[in-house]
Amino acid sequence: MSYVKFCYLKNVGWNGFKDGLDSGVFCVAPLARLNAADGMATPLANELYQKYFDALGGKPVHHTLANHWAE
Question: Ramachandran region of residue 62, left (φ > 0), alpha (ψ -120 to 50) or beta?
Fold first, then answer.
């Protein structure tokens, strides 16, 4: 059981956790913002940004637990 609310595209609807075009589920967390960014504004933040993606195998990162490190 989970009390987490899962975001999904309203026009696609909730189709459960499946992959592909029929899936309306999307991520709204720090990890999603990092995946969409091209880099960070300060040198230290950008260095950590690069280390993050190097450690996790590049972009995009889809590992759910990677959200903890993204925060």
Answer: alpha
